[in-house]
Amino acid sequence: MAKNISRSKKTERKSKQKVDKRKDTIIVTIGIIAAVIVTFVAVIAANTEFIENNSSDNTKNEKSYTYEASEDNAPEVKTSEKTEESNNKAETADNGTTKPQKTTTPAKTTEQTKTSDSGQSTKNTPSITVSQQNAVKKAKSYLSYSAFSRDGLISQLKYEGFSDADAVYGADNAGANWNEQAKKKAISYLKYSSFSRTGLIKQLEYEKFTNAQAIYGTDNAGANWNEQAEKKARSYMEHSAFSRSGLISQLEYEGFTKAQAEHGADFVGL
User: Fold this and answer.
1) What HEC string does the chain produce?
2) 15 against 119, higher pLDDT
3) pLDDT in tens, 41-90
4) What is the average per-residue pLDDT within 104-119?
5) Poorest-confidence range of 1-10, 183-192, 215-224?
6) 36 φ, ψ to 5°?
7) pLDDT-derived band at 185, boundaries 50, 70, 90
8) What mean pLDDT comes out for the span 137-161?
9) What local confidence, expressed as pLDDT, does residue 48 receive?
10) For residues 8 and 156, which has the higher predicted lDDT (pLDDT)?
11) Could you point out which of 52, 104, 177, 201 has its C-alpha 20 to 30 Å from the C-alpha of 139?
12) C-alpha 154 chain-centroid distance
């Protein structure tokens, strides 16, 4: 019985010691945490104060720098003006005459130089539109199987639904030589009909070739105008009856010369 009592007392003592140790540990831990928190707060406060001081110092430095810079610039300008005046006075006193002061002109920029040399501005060059590309393709397609004047090709492209601007662009960028087009058109006419020189020129002008282009095409089509008078006279005689003088007059009306008309009448036996 006594042993049991002593054992229980020992157990109680040990348990109390353990509880006391735990309390001590908890107290120490709380103290450490509190110290860390205090330190952390102090560090934050110190950093905040440091940042505020630096920002105020920088602001002061900027203000002082601006002030110093403005003060430094002012006397330099005055000094340069006085120096120029003194130099001009010195030159006047030495030579007895006032030298004209040099004037400086601003240098031209690259864009200004290009504009003054070419007379045209190279800025904002428009790009080719899809419609313009199609107009060029269509124009080349027409020229590949037939002959056109410039105005005639423009009219044809407009008939195809292209705008006036796109039609003009297509005709001008199809690579056509309008003199050669007039020549091709003249040869084409001579294949299925007969013409005098004057008549063929008028027909080409009707196709909207210029007078110069029509003359070039007619003179380079390789026509023999006497043979053309023969063909025209025979064509008239196949469809109607003429006297010699009447046929000659009709051929002259078609633009043949008197000699060519008479040759044609001779050819058909009148």
Assistant:
1) CHHHHHHHHHHHHHHHHHHHHHHHHHHHHHHHHHHHHHHHHHHHHHHHHHHHHHHHHHHHHHHHHHHHHHHHHHHHHHHHHHHHHHHHHHHHHHHCCCCCCCCCCCCCCHHHHHHHHHCCCCCCCCCCCHHHHHHHHHHHHHHHHCCCCHHHHHHHHHHCCCCHHHHHHHHHCCCCCHHHHHHHHHHHHHHHCCCCHHHHHHHHHHCCCCHHHHHHHHHCCCCCHHHHHHHHHHHHHHHCCCCHHHHHHHHHHCCCCHHHHHHHHHHCCC
2) 15
3) 666 766 666 565 555 555 444 444 444 444 444 444 344 444 444 444 43
4) 44
5) 1-10
6) -65, -45
7) very high
8) 96
9) 62
10) 156
11) 201
12) 25
Tokens of 156: 């044809």
Tokens 């004209």, located at residue: 100
Look up residue 243 and give its two tokens: 């006297």
The C-alpha atoms of residue 25 and residue 22 are separated, in whole angstroms, by: 5
Range 16-31 average pLDDT: 71
Pair of tokens at residue 217:
């095409």
Q: Which amino acid is at 100?
A: P
Q: Cα separations (Å) of 110 from 114, 174, 235? A: 6, 33, 69
The structure tokens 């120029």 sit at: 84
- CB–CB of 181/167 below 8 Å? no
Start-to-end CA distance of the chain, whole Å, equals 177
pLDDT at 33: 83
Domain boundaries, the chain: 15-77, 129-176
pLDDT band at 17 (very low <50, low <70, confident <90, very high): low
Contact present, 156 and 189 (Cβ < 8 Å):
no
Question: Is residue 208 within 8 Å of residue 149, measured between CB atoms?
Answer: yes
